[in-house]
Amino acid sequence: MKKIIWRDYLGIAVGAAITAVSLNMFLIPNKVAAGGVSGLATVLHHLLNWPVGIIMLAFNIPLFIIGLKVMGARYGINTLFGAAMLSIAIDLMAPYTPVLTGDLLLNSLYGGVIGGIGMGIVFRYKGNTAGTALAAVILNKLLKIRVGQAMMAADFFVIVFAGLAFKSAELSLYALISIFVTGQIVDLVQEGPSTSKAFFVMSSQPKQVADAIIKEMDRGVTVLQAKGGYTGDPREMLLCVVSTSEVTQLKEVIYHIDSKAFVIVTTAHEVLGEGFTEVKI
Asked: Which residues of the chain have pLDDT under 50?
C-alpha cells in the first residue's frame, strides 16, 4: 500500500513539473492565459509582476480548504500536494526555462500538448492541481452543477478577463486553441491511444460466428442477450474486442459466415485484462 501511495506522489510530481515547463516555456511569457487559475495568474503576473506560482497558491488555498471538507482527507492531501508542486515548480524553473518562439500559434499548440501531458499524468495518478478543476468538483458536490459546465464557465471568464486586460482579442482566441488541445491530450494520456476496436455483431448465426472468431482468431467473445425494438423478438448479440490490426480479419470472419450480419465497430480507448493491457494496481 505504501508503495502505491509513493508511486502516486511521484507521478503527481512528474506531471506537475511537465505542466510547469509548458507554462514557463510557451504560455506565460507570451500572455496566453489558457483558462483556470494558471491563466488568471498569468494575467496578474504581467500586470503586477508577481510570481505566477505564488499567485496560484494564494488562489488555491481557500479552494483546498473547501475541498478538504467536501471531498475528504485523501483527496484533499493529493490536491494540496499537486497544487503545491505545480506552484513551486513554476517559480523555481522559470529563470532556467528558455522561451523557444514568439509565434502565438506554436506557443498555443505546444503549450497545450505539453500541458495536457503533464495534467494527464497528474490525473492518472489520482492527483489534482486544484484551480478551476477543483472548484468545478466542489460546485458539483454542493450545487449539482455539472463539472464540465462549471469548468467551461470559469475558463470562459478567465479568457475574457485576459482579453480585456491585455487589450487583445487575438490572445483570447489563441488561449481557446490551447485549452482545446490540452483537453484532448489529457483524455489521450488518461485513456490511452485508440489501439483497440470493439465489435457488436447481430447475426442470424451467432453460434457459428462466435465459434469462428474463437477458433480462427483466438479471441474471446461475449454473448449478450438483446431484444428487437420493433419485433420484440429475443436475439443474441456478440461482443468482441480486437486490436486495430485485426479489424479487417475479423470482418472477413464474420461476413464469410453471415453476409447479412449487422456490425457496429467502436473505438475502445483502453482495454484491460487477458490478451490486452495487464492490470496494475
From this structure: none
Determine, yes or no, domain membership for 273: no
Residues 186 and 205 in one domain: no
How many CB atoms are located within 10 Å of the residue 54 CB? 15
Range of the domain at 219: 196-268
pLDDT of residue 74: 60
Residue 36, C-beta contacts closer than 8 angstroms, at least 6 positions apart = 131, 132, 133, 154, 155, 158
Give me the pLDDT at residue 36, please.
86
Sign of the CA dihedral running 170, 172, 176, 182? positive
Q: Look at residue 148 in the predicted model and tell me its pLDDT.
A: 61
| 58: in domain | yes
Q: Which three cell numbers stand for residue 64?
A: 483546498
Mean pLDDT of the chain: 87
Q: Which residue, of 175, 191, 207, is where some domain finishes?
A: 191
The strands making up 222-227's β-sheet, listed across from edge to edge, are 222-227, 234-243, 196-202, 262-268
Distances (CA, A) of 38 to 23, 35, 110, 140, 172: 8, 7, 16, 21, 14
Q: Which of 107, 120, 116 is nearest to 175 (CA)?
A: 107
Closest CA to 84 of 63, 61, 65, 62: 61
236 in helix, strand or coil? strand
What's residue 238's pLDDT? 97
Quote the pLDDT of residue 52: 96
Contact 150, 136 (CB under 8 A): yes
Query: What is the pTM (predicted TM-score) of this model?
Result: 0.76
C-alpha cell at 246: 485485426
**Amino acid, res. 63:** L
